[in-house]
Amino acid sequence: MIENHRSGLLWNKFMANPEIQPMLNAIGFVPDTTTSVNNDINVSTTFELYQNYPNPFNPTTKISWQSPVASHHTLKVYDILGREVATLVDEYKEAGKHEVDFSVETTHTSSLPSGVYYYRLQAGDFIQTKKMIFMK
């Protein structure tokens, strides 16, 4: 028997025939009613701040992180002396993966000199800092 797996048309017609069902019952046939379930949930159980990409960058880089819980997130950029350069995120975020662009051209940091900068994520009790390099 040729089956259309997308629609199940042939199988459904076959099973709808009133003469077929009593014969299938007599031989103990039980149709397969399994369905596909995707249990692949992409929410991590740990916090993770990823390395920015690209690094070194000019003029834009992506910063991403993973949060297992919903909470208030703050992501800031600092220069090598610890002075705050930019606040990229300061808001409540759901659990999951998040990403933000840091662009020297679109922030109030258009006069940033080349050098080492740090980005710091704080989400609840989680705090982590990573280093990035801006090259003109």
TrEMBL record:
Domain Secretion system C-terminal sorting positions: 53-133
Pfam families: Por_Secre_tail (PF18962)
Signal peptide: none
Alphabetical list of InterPro entries matching this protein: Secre_tail
Name the record gives this protein: T9SS type A sorting domain-containing protein
